[in-house]
Amino acid sequence: MIGLVAHSAQAQLIQEPVEAVMIASGRSDPMPVIEERLTVAIDGQHATTTLLQVYENNTGGQTEGRYRLRAGMDAHVEGFSYWNGEQKIVGEVFEKQTARQVYDAVTSRRRDPGLLEHDGEGAFAFKVFPIEAKEKKRIEMRWTKWLDRRTKTVRYHAPVVRADANIVISISGAVKNLKSPTHRFHTEKTSDGVRLRSEGARTTGELILTWEADEPDWQPSVYVQPGGKHDGWFAMSLAAPDVSDKTVAAKDVTIVIDRSGSMIGEAMANARRAAADMILLLDSRDRVNVISFSDEVDPLFKTPQLLDEDTRARARKFAEGLKEGGGTDIALALRTALASQDKEQGRPRVIVFMTDGQSDAKQALDAANADIGDVRLFTVGLGDKVNRPLLERIANVKRGRFVYIEKPSAIGTEVGKLAASISKPLLVDVSLEVDGAHAVRLYPRSMGDLFAEDELLVTGRVKGTGTAKFIIKGRFAGKPVTFTRSVDLGKAPQRPWVGRLWAKARVAHLLEEVSLGTQTTEMTNEVIDLALAYNFVTPYTSFLAIPESELGNMKGTVEAARERKRKIMADNPDAASLNRDKADSVQMFDANTIDAAPPQASPRGGDADEEDAINSEGASYGRVRKHGCAGCTTSNPSSLGLLLVVALLALRRRRR
Length: 656
Fold this sequence. Notes:
The protein is of the alpha+beta class. It is 27% helix and 35% strand.
């Protein structure tokens, strides 16, 4: 047994909102959830989550259900199903325009399709109609996410409504100090990690689980998916350990605050407070400057000044006194901040750039690219109107990172985390080399520095069959350092998620290019092709789940879309091989019990019944046709019995 400890403070570590809710048309309160099952398979830091919920229509009449899933930033939906009675309707990914066309045509006949679309940062939504009075509507969602890690602590967060939800979580890897402020778990060791089963909830609405990676400091993690006849895939991560303040160099920090008219109210108040708190957290050896901007720029100092008591007081007073008004000129503010940096060598120079607005993307990028100084730029996007691709690209160009904050109330907390992180620049001038194999098409395109409580994550394609050595180089405390991890590519276990993680990184890069105005037909088509080949939702693709019997005159449209998808799979045999690996590993569950799958050999060498129970890639309830993306299935035992009787009669007739 591995003990799992409750720790109420852990609830404050995760700010991302999560939810899974269905609301009846014309209502504001969610439909009640009468059954809930969550299965999670975590491999290192990659989580695959399957959530089944049963909603009851208590409106007193027929209604349309509006479902919304918020699974966290950078989550990707890879599976979507719902039930009509005992009939399971399994979604498949189509081009968004085609899926919407079919959905609208079928819905106009008051039929029962489901269309799941991207609905914002880490959010997805669909509608289902009709839901009859007192009907119990089953919904199943599967999504994947690379989990956040700070020093050694990994965090998992998911929406859970019911206190008696059936929750099973497997974690592969060496872990310790499991904690949950929201649930009680029975925990047991497995051959490659731990397995948890919920024994009740302390709170409802969410599940929070944290643990520590039981491994040495500065040890890279490398995951590989062999490609067979094709190039393989890899994912490499390195988390910053907890280090002594003695290893941290004094630095220059310039805080740039958007005070344009759109920041009125709570956003401006929280930005002022966050900047003042950041100034308070800086070391007395540091230097600071504060620059406010709208369509004009107002710097407190010409260059960053040493943080004596007078400078700290002046900087905090300046930040706390900002008033909103005017337009937004990101390029002007960025040029001013970069030009104000002291050219003295040996001191890390950091710019923290907070804005909620949009601006001319080309001018802003030109300003970032024109600067040849060794400045790290951290961009903070506030609210849903911010130009995220622009801020991400600027941060990448200047070897920092982007932080997205959806709600004004979270500004203080998230900027506080950022301040704590940049207060300790650890590994700088970071690069990755691979010996013994050829690594290509790496994302992100440029590697930023590694700060305290930060993590590097790189994905790419890899060519080779022997032992590959992944080498991370950089400077730590002013001295060159090297960290390595070797992997035998020919003996690596199957990890299809590594290939899909790379595909999502490639799509994110393409979407960034499109949003920055470099859109081409080729880029858009590649996004669609990758999403169809690797099977996930993007702004250009959707999941469509519809019974074959309801297609009507749209059957030809759906068949044409399927034929296009077959051609894409033929043109991308590497992606097709991932889907075959995934399909072959799926074990289906009966609708009435999560542990009903029969024992068989475990692909990871663990107990077979345990593997079946926790394999969330197959956590579907009912038996599914292998190619039944819009097919109809049943888990009714009487139907299976009838099929058996028919088969026996046919065999008897043949013998006669």
